[in-house]
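Changelog entry: the Switch-associated protein 70 record was regenerated in this release. Current contents:
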Amino acid sequence: MVGLKEELLKSIWHAFTALDLDRSGKVLSHNLCTVLNVPHDPVALEEHFRDDDEGPVSNQGYMPYLNKFILEKVQGNFDKVEFNRMCWTLCAKKNLSKSPLLISDEDAFKVWVIFNFLSEDKYPLIIVPEEIEYLLKKITEAMGAGWQQEQFDHYKIALNTSREGLSAWELIDLIGSGQFSKGMDRPTVSMAINEVFNELILDVLKQGYLLKKGHKRKNWMERWFVLKPNIISYYVSEDLKDKKGDIMLDGNCCVEALPDKDGKKCLFLIKCLDKTFEISASDKKKKQEWIQAIQSTVTLLRAGSPPPHKEARQKRKELRQKLLAEQEELERQMRELQAANENKQKELETVRKQLEAAAARAAEEEKKRLQTQVELQDRFSLELEREKMVRQKMEEQVAQKASELEQYLQRVRELEEMYKQLQDALEDEKQARQDEETVRKLQARLLEEETAKRAELEKWHLQQQQTIQMTEAEKQELENQRMMKEQALQVAMQQLKQLELERKEALEQYEEVKKKLETAANNTKSWKDKVAHHEGLIRLIEPGSKNPHLITNWGPAAFTEAELEERQRSWKGKKATSE
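Regenerated structure tokens:
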């Protein structure tokens, strides 16, 4: 009933949209109730349109009333052709083209009904190019002409560029213009339209003259047979005015070929539950066609399938819907890809701007780096020059210290020689010699320590000279070593100062020894004879109080008396320990 309702709505839509004065649809409702055999309720109609008279788009419009009070009551016991003709009568006058057509008004009506069958289930109604091609092919085949695919392709391209499809009136104009039926006369076109109308609208699967054997008289009479999805009707002639009977078909029916008998050829038998019909065709080809057509119809009834043309229409719609869904999905994917592409473009633009900004920053940083490098090079050059000057001054100072150290060493050697002479002079004075020997050993030990320190200083001085001659790549490391050696030198200088202090203490101790030596000199008469040729040495050990400083081979005031006393106590302690 849903499919029947949709088919009825299409014809009613044409009739309703053609109304001008009575847009409420009251007149249309009366006519519909009449042709559809539905009881009409004028009171319900007036009640429905009591507050609103604005047509089917309103809440109280015509379509709600049509669905509730008319279409829901349709039982299917009405004449479809009469229903369509009533709707056609209401809309044709207003919409049918006034230009002359190659088809009659009756043929235009049939094309209009076919349009309602093939059109899409959306409003306003249109027929898509695929259905137009299907219809034109059917008409061309019915005329026995060849199909011009290339011509229709050009027409389809021109149509697709401007609209989705044609309205019913545009389809009538297209077929009536003879664009796809050139060379065919008007009766041939009319016959083809009628054949397609019978197949698509009246569900005529096959029709033609056959001989039928009577059940009572057993005579053979020629009848016009019409095969439909569930019935075979036979008439006196093809004008369908005098109907003689029906053969009801169902899944239990079957058709069988019969051998020739009683002078009749091309026989076949139709078996039903209650009756059996013997039929004779004019030739073997028609016999086979009828047997095959009836068998196909029974097979469809057993499977519960719709007629072939309706099933084909449904498959075409499903295919179009599938293609439309795929196209929409493809468009959606294209939109997503386009959006993604736009996003990528925006991201690339953002990345490009970031790269440009990064390049600008890098250029600025490179500029700053070069400037900083130049400044560092200038600063390094200045520091290098300053370092060279400092190194040169240090070399001069080291050379000066080396010269002073050489002089000092020479003096030390002279003092050692004088000390030896003094030792020889004091041989006879044993006690004095022992004391002198003690002091001399102390002085020798100090001298050795100082000599070792001086040698170490000389070594460090030589290493500093070698360091100065090294390459620029090792400069920093050598500079660190030089600093360490300078620190060591400072430590050595501090130790040297400590030795100087100890020497002063030894000198002070030596002062006491000198006093003892003076005492010994008074007792020794031969002292001056032994050391007469050493005038300087005589002055060193000559007693007297004029010079308060102690004079040794280390020089004046090399040791203080306290230092000499401390060293003397240390020596005596060591001697006692050894004994």
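Residues 206-306 form a domain with the PH-domain like fold (CATH 2.30.29.30).
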